[in-house]
């Protein structure tokens, strides 16, 4: 296995998951980062010993067992042992121990050196009692666990079911090799050994290595020698490398599991689901806004009602009204400011609707933290945009009231108002000229007064009828403004919604980028793990097959 490649993959995955957390995209913001700590961190050279930690509760005899393994009194025992304060290490004098990692407490670490060549391949670590009242004890154990290759879990016949010890083993068991020692075996019964073995098998060990020892006196069933032989077999270079490899595979597997969770979290229905969810929320707000503004629109439109727009007044005005068109336009302009129609209640309601949409991550699949940052609508003046549409609606209606067909018909009536009188006058003139010519021969052909009256009446009707029809075709200005205000409102809301949808598209683009990156890293880890030979029958008995709980 290329440890360099494993570290690179692990670092890449960690940076990616950290990025998801920082940007709010992570499926679980509370999940801690996976630790990259390993036994290699303790040494300044590639050649290193097997790091063996003695793990157990108070009074199980860890220090006594360490003294027996070392063949010297290196760890204090009994009442003089500082059970809650110190990590005791025992290693060969030629081993180059690097500076302790930053998270270790240097004044609680005892570095004991020896010159025994037979023990040069092992670094012994006596850890504090994890069940002590001192919380620092447990913290130190947890800090040291990632740096241990082999854990020797020491129990006694009375303490082999310790709940705290089992919990810590199940949470961290898959990261290490394990040996188990029932100390003080002279006080035990065979049924306890069988029960302990069954518990280990149910925890994930196929055939756990359980040794029975008696540290303070000789005993016929003492298996201390067998324990030493197994430790020596695990302290070989190739086994250490395999344990180191397994540690990285475990870390990469844990990262891969996390990536799978993140990938499932990111792989929603994409922009379609975002748009559908937003459209549903926005439709609710738009309906509320239309209903809220209907009465103000009617009141505002009524301001444009003018008594002088009726047909009679129009005729009288055309015959000599003193009020000019400029004065009428000026009066209308005074009433054309629609900026006050959109009120604070609607602004608050719109903000609340968007905020509720942002928080509804179960609807659209995007974390609320992301939506609150990216879809806050702060980059657009929604109120100003909508009121501008309302103003434009009023101004355009005043300039060109009615529909296009109404304006065309009104224009046609205006043309007829000029054309028909001209045609009537042309016809009358033609008759007059013809009568004058004929009258030169016969005075009876002269056009009489009756014809003149009828001709003038015909010309007048040719002007009056189209004028009356044209005026009747002119739409009601209040009605037109009321209708166009609603149209302007919907246009303004549509533009605001379009702005939000552009932001949603950007959010979805980021999600797709995260999804692609997540998939790419996962595939690289999968290929790496698949290319690694993990089979090693010599370790099967000391490794947890699966981190399943009891």
Can you describe this structure in just a few lines?
With 550 residues, this protein is an alpha/beta fold.
In words, what does this structure look like?
This protein has 550 residues and is an alpha/beta fold. It has 2 domains: 48-235, P-loop containing nucleotide triphosphate hydrolases (Rossmann fold, 3-Layer(aba) Sandwich); 270-513, no CATH class. The protein is 57% helix and 7% strand. The protein is built from 17 helices and 7 strands. Helix 1 runs parallel beside helix 7, helix 8 (270-302) packs antiparallel against helix 11 and helix 8 packs antiparallel against helix 17.
- The averaged pLDDT comes out at 78
Helix content: 55-70%
Q: Please give the radius of gyration in angstroms.
A: 47 Å
Q: Tell me about the biggest sheet?
A: 7 strands, mixed
Number of helices: 17
Q: Order of strands in the sheet with the most strands? A: 3-2-4-1-5-6-7
Low-confidence stretches: 79-84, 307-335
Euclidean distance between termini CA atoms: 32 Å
Order of helices and strands: HEHEEEHEHEHEHHHHHHHHHHHH
Helix/strand/pairing category: alpha/beta
| Global shape | rod-shaped
Percent range for β-strand residues: 5-15%
> What is the strand tally?
7
The number of domains: 2
């Amino acid at each position: 296995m290329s440890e360099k490649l494993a570290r690179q993959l692990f670092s890449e995955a960690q940076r990616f998951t950290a990025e998801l957390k920082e940007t709010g995209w992570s499926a679980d913001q509370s999940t801690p980062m996976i630790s990259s700590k390993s036994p290699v961190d303790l040494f300044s050279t590639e050649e290193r010993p097997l790091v063996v930690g003695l793990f157990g509760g108070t009074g199980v005899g860890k220090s006594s067992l360490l003294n027996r393994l070392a063949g010297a009194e290196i760890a204090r025992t009994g009442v003089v042992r500082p059970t809650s304060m110190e990590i005791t290490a025992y290693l060969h004098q030629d081993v180059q121990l690097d500076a302790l990692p930053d998270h270790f407490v240097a004044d609680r670490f005892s570095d004991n050196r020896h010159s025994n060549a037979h023990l040069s391949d092992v670094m012994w670590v006596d850890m504090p009692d994890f069940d002590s009242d001192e919380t620092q004890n447990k913290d130190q154990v947890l800090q040291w666990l990632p740096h241990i290759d082999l854990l020797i879990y020491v129990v006694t016949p009375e303490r082999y079911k310790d709940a705290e010890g089992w919990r810590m083993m199940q949470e961290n068991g898959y990261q290490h090799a394990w040996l188990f020692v029932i100390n003080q075996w002279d006080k035990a019964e065979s049924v306890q050994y069988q029960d302990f073995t069954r518990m280990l098998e149910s925890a994930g060990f196929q055939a756990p290595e359980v040794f029975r020892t008696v540290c303070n006196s000789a005993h016929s069933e003492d298996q201390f020698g067998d324990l030493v032989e197994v430790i020596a077999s695990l302290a070989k270079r190739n086994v250490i490398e395999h344990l180191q490899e397994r540690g990285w595979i475990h870390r990469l597997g844990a990262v891969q599991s996390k990536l799978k969770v993140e990938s499932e979290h990111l792989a929603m229905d994409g922009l379609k689901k975002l748009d559908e969810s937003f459209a549903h929320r926005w439709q609710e707000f738009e309906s509320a806004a239309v209903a809220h503004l209907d009465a103000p629109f009617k009141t505002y439109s009524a301001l444009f009602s003018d008594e002088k727009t009726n047909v009679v007044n129009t005729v009288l005005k055309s015959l000599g009204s003193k009020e000019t068109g400029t004065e009428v336009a000026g009066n209308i302009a005074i009433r054309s400011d629609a900026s006050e129609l959109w009120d604070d209640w609607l602004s608050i309601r719109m903000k609340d609707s968007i905020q509720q949409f942002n928080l509804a991550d179960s609807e659209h699949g995007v974390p609320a933290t992301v939506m609150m940052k990216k879809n806050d609508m702060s980059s657009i003046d929604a109120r100003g945009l909508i009121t501008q549409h309302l103003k434009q609606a009023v101004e355009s209606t005043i300039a060109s009231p009615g529909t296009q067909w109404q304006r065309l018909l009104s224009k046609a009536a205006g043309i007829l108002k000029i054309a028909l009188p001209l045609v009537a006058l042309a016809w009358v003139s033609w008759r007059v000229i013809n009568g004058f010519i004929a009258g030169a021969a016969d005075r009876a052909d002269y056009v009489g007064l009756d014809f003149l009256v009828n001709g003038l009446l015909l010309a007048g009707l040719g002007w009056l009828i189209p004028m009356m029809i044209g005026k009747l075709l002119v739409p009601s200005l209040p009605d037109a403004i009321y209708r166009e205000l609603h149209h302007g409102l919907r246009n303004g809301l549509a533009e605001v919604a379009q702005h939000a949808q552009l932001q949603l598209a950007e959010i979805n683009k980021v999600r797709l980028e995260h999804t692609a990156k997540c998939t790419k890293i996962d595939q690289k880890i999968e290929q790496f793990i698949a290319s690694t030979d993990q089979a090693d029958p010599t370790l099967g008995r000391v490794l947890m097959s699966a981190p399943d709980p009891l």
